[in-house]
Backbone:
């Protein structure tokens, strides 16, 4: 029996009731959300449940929604079931004041560096991570660059002529 | 340099402490800028710590500032050995997001370009594995044929390496007869060269002894580490995005997916080699299918999508509608639909994914690149632990780490 | 189609008996001797055997690999031996984007080189930051080390890299012997904080 999005949704609601919400199917992939405390429970369920078997973590990234008060930093997990050839997207939101998320490194080794990258870019604190420090940026950097409030360009440049760029 | 803590010497070691060795960002063994700080016990590697980020160019933040077609030049610089695959992957993501359907001829032309770039990427990787084991000649032989591939790109898009090839909806111009002549020359001459390259390495006693049994990983561990692409196929899992989630009409082609057994350096070399043969076969099939289009069908090189594909210059100067579309596209005034999409293609190193979130603005709200190199470089320590230092160098190059894709 | 002409004033190569002679420096020739300036002879020797250090970080590095390969052969110009040790090399070829994390490494490699040393910045990213006007990219390597020749392009064609290399050869051939000990050179290095 091929796995379908409807079946996955049914199993998730059956196990977690109303702790999983906001189901939608964007371009074929089932996406849903849950509270930040439940992320490991949901990931483990998706991994170990015999009929679901999402054993491959394709991607882990963060998104910053500054307008969503209380859930400004969202961590998005993309999982893949190779045998049934189905993808699924799972996101959790945390407030920017206390961005704590449990680490998924015990379940998926590939989450190690992906969580470091999310910490580096957004400041999400992964509890239990073996080595949570900056990975792509300079170690001395004191802000989290991919948050929407910070600009793209280096503000310490003195050689760029703002007049020429229409900003003078 | 502080010694890493909790390093215990293996049993039977005659040393008192381990030696810290820095295979630093500028080193002939690292083909790209990444750093490995290794603890070695004599010649055996005990542990290593990788540092990346020496070429972090903030692509994801840069993409939030640019309309969709301006992001293509950034994607070029991800895996710069095979930039057309990155470009096509991005265009396919945009087309899936915007629900654009492509004519078959465009798909087949895209397949030819993508398979040529896959050959180009695997050629660099395999010949550099040869260079690292001491055989420089293979590298020089095959670089000549990479020049032929560059000439084909140049004929289509004007540029050799960072191609920015294709547009959302197709190609910027039809392939000229010169491009097809060069493609035929490539298809005639290259298989002989690949056969010669193979003969230099695959049954060569020195190469086999250096690469067999080193840098191996089991299929289950490889999957847990997020491996995809030739590295995962060498470990025994036949996952290929072209087969699982076909894009650009790959389902119309008949090709095999080579799979290894132990995941060691030799298997990776052989898998890449076999993939190059499969790519040649796919290009031949695609070329044949393209020659079957006759008359007006043979002139189609893009889909009809006026919001994203620039109109012809003759129309811009004569028709009002074309002028308005031209203005809107260039000034970046096309609003994207709301939503999010994750779409992946099979890059030279594995599953290259694009996660695009749009809130209805003119530029993406968030664009994340799922870069295969970044994810499987984490496993490097497990691959070389307990092995010799010289095997670590060969493993590093057989993983095909491209710094641009590592850091984005 | 309008035909495209590139080399509008081509120089005819002077080849006699399958041998083409290079241009000798200015001097006084005689029967069995040739008197010229010491700097011209030293320059001639240095420029035809520069040992480059390819500091290849990204895409320009792949074009450099194509330049070193047999189609566009850089070893015709005497740089057959590329070295990766700064202590042994004359020419630092910086090819590719230099991020702020990499800048101290680049500076240390430059400081380890012995005089006389030249630097060529290959590509738009090394010359000025290129298309990456972001918080993490150094906007040109001349923020940290003095540069002699800039080669524009993204990536520059191998012919452009060879052209930049030939300009370095011109600089090397005409450099005065006293340049490295002069006040002006010392001021240049001091402006970069190098003693």
Residues:
């Amino acid at each position: 029996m091929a796995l379908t999005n409807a079946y996955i949704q049914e199993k998730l609601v059956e196990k977690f009731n109303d702790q999983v919400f906001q189901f939608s199917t964007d371009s074929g992939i089932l996406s849903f959300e849950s509270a930040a405390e439940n992320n490991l429970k949901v990931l483990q369920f998706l991994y170990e449940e015999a009929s679901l078997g999402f054993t491959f973590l394709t991607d882990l990234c963060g998104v910053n929604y500054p307008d969503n008060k209380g859930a400004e930093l969202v961590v998005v997990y993309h999982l893949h079931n190779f045998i049934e050839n189905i993808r699924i997207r799972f996101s959790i939101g945390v407030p920017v004041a206390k961005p704590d998320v449990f680490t998924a490194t015990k379940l998926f080794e590939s989450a190690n560096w992906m969580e470091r990258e999310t910490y580096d870019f957004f400041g999400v604190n992964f509890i239990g991570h073996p080595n949570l420090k900056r990975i792509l940026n300079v170690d001395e950097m004191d802000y989290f660059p991919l948050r929407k409030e910070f600009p793209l360009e280096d503000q310490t440049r003195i050689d760029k002529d703002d007049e020429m760029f229409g900003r003078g | 340099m502080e010694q890493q803590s909790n390093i215990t010497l293996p049993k039977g070691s005659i040393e008192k402490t381990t030696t810290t060795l820095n295979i630093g960002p500028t080193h002939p063994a690292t083909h790209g800028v990444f750093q490995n700080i290794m603890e070695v016990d004599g010649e055996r590697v005990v542990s290593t710590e990788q540092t990346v980020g020496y070429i972090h160019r903030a692509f994801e933040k840069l993409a939030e500032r640019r309309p969709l077609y301006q992001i293509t030049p950034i994607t070029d610089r991800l895996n710069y050995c095979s930039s057309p695959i990155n470009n096509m992957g991005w265009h396919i993501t945009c087309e899936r997001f915007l629900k654009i359907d492509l004519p078959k001829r465009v798909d087949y032309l895209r397949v030819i370009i993508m398979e040529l770039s896959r050959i180009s990427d695997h050629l660099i990787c395999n010949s550099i594995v040869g260079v690292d084991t001491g055989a420089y000649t293979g590298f020089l032989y095959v670089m000549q044929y990479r020049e032929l591939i560059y000439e084909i790109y140049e004929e289509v898009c004007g540029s050799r390496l960072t191609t920015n090839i294709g547009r959302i909806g197709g190609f910027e111009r039809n392939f000229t007869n010169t491009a097809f002549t060069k493609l035929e020359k490539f298809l005639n001459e290259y298989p002989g060269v690949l056969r010669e390259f193979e003969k230099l390495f695959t049954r060569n006693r020195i190469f086999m002894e250096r690469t067999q049994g080193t840098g191996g990983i089991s299929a289950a561990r490889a999957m847990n580490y997020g491996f995809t692409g030739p590295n995962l196929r060498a470990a025994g899992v036949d996952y290929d995005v072209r087969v699982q989630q076909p894009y650009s009409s790959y389902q119309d082609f008949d090709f095999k997916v080579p799979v290894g057994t132990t995941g060691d350096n030799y298997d990776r070399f052989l898998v890449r080699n076999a993939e190059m043969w499969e790519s040649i076969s796919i290009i031949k099939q695609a070329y044949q299918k393209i020659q079957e289009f006759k008359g007006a069908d043979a002139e189609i090189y893009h889909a009809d999508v006026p919001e994203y594909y620039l109109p012809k210059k003759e129309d811009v100067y004569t028709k009002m509608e074309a002028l308005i579309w031209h203005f809107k596209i260039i000034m970046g005034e096309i609003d994207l639909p709301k939503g999010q999409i994750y779409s992946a293609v099979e890059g030279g190193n594995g599953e290259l994914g694009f996660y695009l979130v749009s809130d209805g603005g003119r530029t993406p709200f968030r664009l994340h690149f799922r870069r295969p190199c970044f994810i499987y470089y984490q496993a490097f320590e497990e691959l070389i632990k307990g092995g010799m230092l010289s095997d670590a160098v060969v493993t590093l190059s057989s993983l095909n780490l491209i710094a641009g894709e590592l850091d984005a | 189609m309008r035909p495209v002409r590139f080399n509008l004033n081509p120089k005819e190569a002077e080849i006699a008996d399958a041998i083409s002679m290079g241009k000798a420096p200015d001097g006084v020739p005689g029967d069995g001797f040739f008197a010229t300036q010491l700097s011209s002879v030293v320059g001639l020797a240095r420029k035809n055997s520069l040992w480059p250090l390819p500091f290849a970080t990204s895409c320009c590095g792949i074009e450099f690999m194509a330049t070193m390969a047999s189609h566009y052969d850089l070893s015709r110009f005497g740089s057959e031996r590329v070295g990766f040790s700064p202590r042994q090399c004359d020419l630092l070829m910086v090819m590719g984007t230099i991020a702020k994390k990499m800048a101290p490494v680049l500076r240390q490699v430059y400081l380890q080189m012995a005089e006389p040393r030249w630097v060529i910045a290959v590509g738009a990213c090394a010359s000025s930051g290129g298309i990456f006007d972001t918080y993490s990219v150094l906007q040109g390597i001349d923020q940290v080390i003095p540069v002699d020749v800039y080669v524009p392009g993204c990536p520059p064609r191998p012919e452009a890299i060879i052209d930049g290399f030939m300009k370095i050869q011109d600089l090397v051939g005409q450099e005065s012997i006293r340049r490295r000990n002069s006040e002006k050179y010392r001021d240049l290095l001091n402006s970069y904080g190098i003693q």
Summary: Residues 158-173 of chain C form the longest helix (16 residues). The helical segments of chain C are 38-47, 59-68, 103-112, 124-128, 158-173, 183-191. The mean pLDDT of chain C is 89.
